[in-house]
Amino acid sequence: MLARQPHEEALTLPNLIAWLEKQPADGRYEFCYPQHCLLAQFMHANGFPDAHFGDRDYGIEHLDGSPYRIPSELAQIAHSRTFGEALQKAYKQL
Predict the structure, then answer these.
(1) Which of 8, 22, 68, 86 has the fewest CB atoms lying closer than 10 Å?
(2) pLDDT digits (tens, 9 = 90+) for 62-87
(3) Which SS3 state, helix, strand or coil, does residue 28 take?
(4) Given a cut of 90, is residue 27 above it in pLDDT?
């Protein structure tokens, strides 16, 4: 688990890659399920147990209460079916 940090700092491409490298390549997830999608699992593993992601409700807020928009590069990576597929997409983003 990464040291507890603000979600803006945790939700980065290098951190996501480091986490994906530890997941089973053939492990599957449902990218449309807000509590269990790739990004929610990643954030849960990094100290944000209430994180969830959806089209309109991102489940993470800035300190001022405004919703946090997922970086587009991470959203594209998350639209995969397996951790291995997501990892390959993430490497291409480097």
Answers:
(1) 22
(2) 556 666 667 778 888 988 999 999 99
(3) strand
(4) yes
